[in-house]
Task: structure prediction
Amino acid sequence: MLVDPGGGSVTPANIKASMDQFAQSAASGGFTVNETGGQALIAAIDKLLDWIDGSGTDLVYLAQSPKLGGSHGGKAISPFAQKVATDQQGFLTVLQQLQESLTTAKQGIKTAMKNYQETDATGRGKFIQA
Result:
């Protein structure tokens, strides 16, 4: 198992940078994908985006301090739980960045599909002319 020397942290900046690089690679012709593969990837992305969009109301509760009672443990854990959900590396922060990144990835896949069609048409033209 490979262990990330950076502690394995996932940050919004890491997610955004990865998806931006993915989309740039597709735009520059770094990879192509056929219609079947592209549509499968887009369907998976759409399913995850639908889940994120549909969970919005439920996720609002994570941003609130949980009601853990008046004990010392409850008073200590409640703000910590809220911070875990909302700070710079918190679940809600990363989930929002993931949502934006999935939209970027979806556009990259569409570009890669277009590149595939263009490459296929160019290749087909070479065989037809021969």
About this structure: Residues 38-112 form one domain. The helical segments are 12-27, 35-54, 56-60, 72-86, 91-129. The longest helix spans residues 91-129. The chain has a mean pLDDT of 81.
